[in-house]
Amino acid sequence: MGERTRPTLARTREELAAARAELPGEVAVVMTMGALHEGHAELIRTARRRAQHVLVTIFLNPLQFGAGEDLSRYPRTLDVDLGICAREGVELVFAPTPDVVYPEGDPGVRMSAGPLGEVLEGRSRPGHFDGVLTVVAKLLHLTRADRAYFGQKDAQQLLLIRRMVRDLDFPVEVVSVPTVREGDGLAMSSRNTYLTPSDREAALSLSRALRAGADAAVEGPSAVRRAARSVLVAEPLVLVDYLVLVHPTTLQDVPEWYHGEALLAVAARVGTTRLIDNQPLRVGPGGGPLEVSVVGGTMGS
């Protein structure tokens, strides 16, 4: 793809509203915290295939970082990010500061993720999903997008955003995009830049564990968990937070008799970096990994 015109950069609500008014027709939004990589580029490309205009938000949301987490060292690469947006044909980038998004400081009213936000990532990061849903809700209002694109890698986040949109009647279509991986299988993440060479080698055990679990899916839930766990325990540099096989919309552990669609999810710390990954799969007869296609709608599939 040749060099394109750099997108309009809006830093304030007023600049966003003025630029958004110049985008007639269907608008898609891709929400990011910056430090864009090929995974974000794939979200943008997928959005461009369906929408007339693509808007990217770049906002490092303080509400979703807990005590001791990595807000201060999260990579900030706005110039590079704008170049990627230009390359991919983005027309408008909204990159506000916290005082623009939260003009009265810490918001007194926030979205609540409810019980689905208290398990898995929510158990390890209390309040994280309340912060995610609060900023997503605000950005959906501010951008007035018709579709919003999110990656399958953040499966719990995707599920909660879909539930929020459905439960609170947001006039937007939520679209999931398959996880984009490096050539060695590592799921793309802005946090991968924190990994040392030895950390990165160890981190590959996450995707290998998911593949091993998916390969054993025809034998049932116990076989899936056992196969995935055996890969992780063989890598001493990986400190596992959780490895679960859950129902894709309730996030409850599937029982041993279960047959059907499930989500094999893992979170682990490698060095100083916390990584997550997941693999949708079918358990039981005909079981194996599920190829996740681009899925729209306002409910979990």
> Considering the protein shown, what is the CATH homologous superfamily of the largest domain?
HUPs
Secondary-structure element string: EHEHEHEHHHEHEHHEEEE
Distance between the termini: 33 Å
Judging by the overall fold, what is the CATH architecture of the largest domain? 3-Layer(aba) Sandwich
List the SSEs and their pairings.
Blueprint: E1 8-10, H1 13-20, E2 27-32, H2 38-50, E3 53-58, H3 78-87, E4 92-94, H4 98-101, H5 121-124, H6 128-143, E5 147-151, H7 155-167, E6 173-177, H8 197-215, H9 221-233, E7 238-246, E8 260-270, E9 273-283, E10 288-289
Parallel strand pairs: 1-4, 2-3, 2-5, 3-4, 5-6
Antiparallel strand pairs: 7-8, 8-9, 9-10
Explain what this protein looks like in three dimensions:
- Helices cover 33% and strands 20% of the residues.
- The chain is an alpha/beta fold and 301 residues long.
- The protein folds into 2 domains: 170 residues, 3-Layer(aba) Sandwich (Rossmann fold), CATH 3.40.50; 99 residues, Pantoate-beta-alanine ligase, C-terminal domain (Pantoate--beta-alanine Ligase, Chain: A,domain 2).
- Helix 6 packs across helix 7 and helix 8 packs antiparallel against helix 9.
- The C terminus is likely disordered.
